[in-house]
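My main concern about presentation is that the manuscript never shows what a single data entry looks like. The format is easy to grasp once an entry is in front of the reader. For illustration, here is how one protein appears when written out as sequence plus structure tokens:
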Amino acid sequence: MRYVILRDDDTNAFTPVACLERLYRPALEQGLPVNLAAIPAVATDTHMPDGRLEGFLLDCPAMRTTVMPLAANPPLVEYLRGNPGYHLVQHGLHHDYLEFERAEPGEISRRLEQGTRLLKEAGFPRPKTFVAPYDKLSRASLVEVQKRFPVLSTGWYELRRLPLAWWPGYAWKKVRGAAHWRIGQTLLLSHPGCLLSSQRAYSTMLSAITHYVNTGRLTVLVTHWWEYFRNGSPDEPFIEFLHETTRYLATHPDIKVISFADLLEENLL
């Protein structure tokens, strides 16, 4: 059996319910879990290096408040809680630019704890999976995340960023050619980049997805809901491609789409 985790990043207080519903109703109806990496209290002034406002602030109005917790959008919280096919994981705290690249363990700990508290206050279970904004973590961040979360989902691991105590495990991972590994009780997952992206050619995306799904035991497929609604308009071909992908995953008996929670509960790695 091949396993797939659908990970959609950047759900936040300004995410329109209609966008998630449009993207994932087919998956939910087919019983496929959707893992939403949710920003606990999104920073309303987060810009990309080129100066543009981040795409996940799609419906964010001009405002004096610099952060907005997920709980400030009751219709979104009600929608997510009312659809058990959605599984929330913790995506940083504010999603400041490279916010977990910092080196101060005290500040990292504060952000991790506050993010968890805010998601629980919004009515969601304590998150067991962490996703760093931009998939970037400092050595100190890796240590603090590993203390608190049974699963870390990121893009890749670099030796120079790893705690020295992790080096033997990393070396064994490299020898085995493994995509995923474990330190203590924490699963360290990697993914093959954002295969579901508006930056990729639609004509080649499905072949890349099927390649990774069929060559590994577990594939984490990463996408971003706001890429399907750039400039506030739905990208119909891209949305249809997402739906085509979910149909493919749902109709192949040797593929099972799971949540991060399933991965832990069923001890699949």
User: Anything to note?
Assistant: The chain has one domain: 2-265. The two ends are 12 Å apart (CA to CA). The mean pLDDT is 94.
